Amino acid sequence: MTLKDILNKILWHPKYKKEEFELVILHRGAKNNKKVIPLENVDIKGSYIVYEDTYIPLHRILMIRKKGRGDVIYSKHEL
């Protein structure tokens, strides 16, 4: 399953609530070059996610995890 497939499943499948997930993205200049954004504030447009009017390429997503518990749903590589 691709990263885009996982995102679409979380966003559109009635079993999942996007409010329960967050993304860790590569964000140069942030602490440890990582930024956490809530999935409920994200839209998918082609090969990008859109967050606060900013287009972020999917390849910058490092991890998808559950809020609070931190269960990792997707990890690009060992962090």
Give the CA-CA distance, first to last residue.
20 Å
Task: Find the count of extended strands (DSSP E, 2+ residues).
Answer: 7
Quaternary: single chain
* Main pleated-sheet profile: 4 strands, antiparallel
Count of domain modules: 1
Task: Classify the secondary structure makeup into a structural class.
Answer: mainly beta
In which range does the helix fraction lie? 10-25%
Computed CA radius of gyration, to the nearest angstrom: 12 Å
Can you tell me about this structure?
The chain is 13% helix and 42% strand. With 79 residues, it is mostly beta strands. The chain has one domain (3-75). The strands form two sheets. It has a four-stranded antiparallel β-sheet, with helices on one face. The longest helix is centred in the N-terminal third of the chain and has 10 residues, at 3-12. It is globular. InterPro entries: MJ1316, UPF0248.
Q: Briefly, what is this?
A:
Residues 2-76 form the MJ1316 RNA cyclic group end recognition domain. The chain is mostly beta strands. It has one helix at 3-12, and strands spanning 21-26, 34-38, 42-45, 48-51, 54-57, 61-66, 72-75.
